[in-house]
Amino acid sequence: MNTIIKALQWRYATKKFDAQKKLSEGQIDAMLEALRLAPSSFGIQPWKFVVVNNPATREQLKAAAWNQTQVTDASHFIVITVPSVPDESLVDAHLASMKKDNPSIDDAKLGAHEKTMKGFMKMKTSDALKAWVRNQAYIALGVVLTAAAAEKIDACPMEGFDSAKFDEILNFKSRGLESVVCVALGFRSAEDTHANEPKSRFAKEDVIVEIN
Q1: Is 200 exposed, middle or buried (0-12, 13-18, 19+ CB in 10 A)?
Q2: What dihedral do alpha carbons 143, 147, 149, 150 form, nearest 10°?
Q3: CATH number, position 65
């Protein structure tokens, strides 16, 4: 646990990346695996993690992110997306995956799980359902930020972008996706003065509430 705490103390939202330093294939594979293994409500995994490699496309995205250099200078840039119109097909895909991973799973158990999930979704308005699905993206974001810190990989979570323009540039409409949040991964530049700033967090007694 001390290792994780030290890693979280070390990490910060990197503002300037060293464009010459790249993650190894093993490092980026580990980060993508952390995203894949992220928890989600019901285990429904309502996301796609879009790794944008093309430099020209990343230049376009930078312009749609108010010219934040993390988009182009980081080793890797990932857009976390969810379905633009979430529906029961998410449940069907999840159940099919469960059956594939565990062929001997009891069909009655799967049926009960299906009834619970689809019942939950039917109770929500379309806006509430979209909000619920989008919230899952932030769980995945938190996981990859922690995984990156544990591996001494710098990261910057990014909400500061025009999502409509991102979706247009990346042709997400044709894929039935919409962007929620992004993460830049790489290694901090020696010129990033934010790296040496003291971490500012509220004291434990200000944020932890115990009800006995």
Answers
A1: exposed
A2: 140
A3: 3.40.109.10
Domain-embedded: residue 179 = yes
Tell me how far apart the alpha carbons of residues 11 and 199 are, in angstroms, rounded to a whole number. 9
Exposure string (b/e) for 167-179, b if CB count within 10 Å is 16 or more? bebbebeeeebbb
Q: Is residue 106 part of a domain?
A: no
pLDDT, the chain, mean: 97
Domain membership of residue 177 (yes or no) is yes
Distance, in Å, from the CA atom of 133 to the CA atom of 129, rounded to the nearest integer, reads 6
Q: Which of 7, 32, 53 is nearest to 140 (CA)?
A: 32
Amino acid at 13: A
Structural domain total, the chain: 1
131-186 pLDDT, tens digit each: 999 999 999 999 999 999 999 999 999 999 999 999 999 999 999 999 999 999 99
Domain of residue 63: give its range.
10-88+123-207
pLDDT at 1: 72
pTM for the whole structure: 0.96
Phi then psi dihedrals of residue 145, to 5 deg: -65, -40
Q: Is the pLDDT of residue 103 over 80?
A: yes
